[in-house]
Amino acid sequence: MKKMIDLFAGCGGLSLGMEQAGFTTVFANEINENLFETYLFNRNLDKESYFKGDINELNQNLIYYKSKFTDVDLVCGGPPCQGFSMANRQRILDDPRNNLYKAYLEFLKEVKPKFFVMENVKGMSKKIDEISKDFKEYLGEGYSFSHSLLNAKDFGFPQNRERFFIIGNRLNIDTANIFVDIKNRKLEKKFVIKDAINDLPELKPNQIKNNTQIENQKIGFFETDYLYPKSTYADFINNNIKVTKLYNHKNRYNNDRDIKIFSLLPQGANSLHKSIEDIMPYKSRNHIFKDKYYKLKENEVCKTITSHMKYDCNMYIHPNQARGLSPREAARVQTFPDYYVFRGTPNNWYAQIGNAVPVKLAEFIGKEIIKYL
Questions:
Q1: Which of 207, 252, 269, 315 is the most buried (most CB within 10 A)?
Q2: Nearest to 269 by CA among 303, 291, 295
Q3: 170 within 8 A of 112, measured Cβ to Cβ
């Protein structure tokens, strides 16, 4: 068994990809109740195998989980770092906003996994010199590590999503070579949006306000039986597992004006398009709101799925239907399998999905790391 610990676990995208690569999650930590509900719902972890709460508190109580933390193969996670902008002159490690980043380093120092993976927004790459010093300060010279920006679309996944990754190990392995091998893992077919979502049932605009409990054939369901048409993409994300239920494919409320905008815009058009100039509500601030609306192009990859979708999906208008992407469609773009269930409220599903690491990208990374174990 290749033992993995997942910190800042979120709803489980990074974990799931690593599990598909051959790792077994022996422990997970997440402070957000909604995210962790989804994480735990999709896994069989006993109460001794996770800590729901602040990682700083976990670090103070590591002794109670000693059996879980011996001979760990991999620790992964993406600590939130608010204080790493280029304009910020304070050292990352000393910025009080980065106490979670510091706690991640503290955990690595105590647990001493064979490998670690840290994932973050691409802007963090600009601070790599500082980050390298921080890692050496905490871990000493026992670990070597490399870093790279990885974009989901470069591997053939249907999303333009660039993220920053650091891979480190204490086995004297050149992690730069691991990144070379990761980048050589490309799909034979490059998938686009229509590959990802075209086999899901059509949804009509949802014009009933405050109706998150209502479900029907028109606006969709939290869970329903569904006979999936044959799809190469579905086989890929589902690892050829036959799925008979459709989860989280539900349309959110939109007002009449937005629905009209959704229907009038051609694919690839944004708020400045002439087809909606008569009804565009932000004319005086077009320079600010040009991306307030955007209709996705079915033959291209999707723009980056983000947690902003919990507020609205106006920047993610379905290529052929007058609505935003459903949570299941967003999850499809993020390469979550169809059997992965998102718990909580519909708006929360979007936040969970938008914050996740693309599952198949995590799997590609995991497969290259596991070769050395």
A1: 252
A2: 295
A3: yes
State which residues form the domain around 165.
2-189+357-370
Give just the sign of the alpha carbon dihedral 280, 281, 285, 291. negative
Q: Looking at the structure, do residues 42 and 10 belong to the same domain, yes or no?
A: yes
Instruction: Report the C-alpha gap between 337 and 243 in whole angstroms.
Output: 9
Identify the active-site residue in 11, 76, 81, 313. Answer: 81
* Burial category of 359 from C-beta neighbours within 10 Å (exposed 0-12, middle 13-18, buried 19 and up): buried
**CATH number where 250 lies:** 3.90.120.10
Give the pairing type, strands 74-77 and 115-121: parallel
Predicted structure pTM score: 0.94
Give the mean pLDDT of the chain: 92
**Facing residues of 120 across strands?**
164
* Nearest Cα residue to 50 out of 31, 27, 34: 27
Stretch 30-39: mean pLDDT: 94
**pLDDT tens across 100-128, in order?**
888 999 999 999 999 999 999 888 888 88
